[in-house]
Amino acid sequence: MKIRFYTLLVFGLLLVGCNGSDDSFSGDVKLKSYRYNFDFQPYSVNLTYNQAGDLISRVVQSEDGIKNDYYYNYDDSGRLVKEDVDFSRPGGTMSIDYSYDGSELSAMTIDENHAYYWSDHTYDFTSDTDYTHSIFTIPDLGPDFERNYVVDLEKDSEGRTVKFAQTSLDNGQVYVVQFEYTNGNLTKIWDDEDVFEIVYDEANNFHTYQSNFQPEIMPNGYDYAGLIRFDAVFNVFKSLLYAPSLFTHVNMNNPVRYTVNGEWRANFNYVYNSHNYPTKIIFNDSWTSGEITVDLTYY
What we know:
By secondary structure, the chain is mostly beta strands. It has no helices and 21 strands.
């Protein structure tokens, strides 16, 4: 039986060389910062990039002392080789190491050391569509446990994942998730029980950077597959948070509506600049009272 926490708020971000209200865009657009209030606390998120335009840091900070730092390191070929995260609240660290065989990802490890548990993930890739995934966890309460999986992917002609099939080596259980894309946007995710659908606008996407591994940029909010606050489907599609094939997906446009099994979960409204990039997001969902307003600025 799946435990469901429908708390999805997906908002991916993107900034580039100018302020949100400045019309003097030049060069590649990259998200510089965004600011919002959550639980009566103002938050700021600041992003920096290297000369190649790759995200190298993301700093999340609130006035009451929350500070989560994310750092990204690349090799001389521009491949991501390491992520480091330091969480001030609830406390902990996370590191992700990537290894390559030529141009292909060959191995990956995720070391999560949180206030309430420690977990180690090991990936071994035989191809870009087949890999094994082993998880060893030491919880704060209860016994240690280990899980092992084989994952098979199907991809379309553009290299996007259209099917994720995970088979447990411990009990033989198979879990399958499928994906649908329209005009460069991830519009549908479904398994044998749940369907999550996303409607988009036709404007330039404010999320230009790669999400990488589940950085938590808002309280209980995840940035994944180019979508921020993936927590509405966190426990329904939890396995996807650990699916590297979706770390690098970036959508073409901005999400405006989320539904799960046909039921409304969230809406996004935008204010755009003259270049058709969002400078403000007004978010409403089915589980939070009131609105969340996000102000965006660009390099």
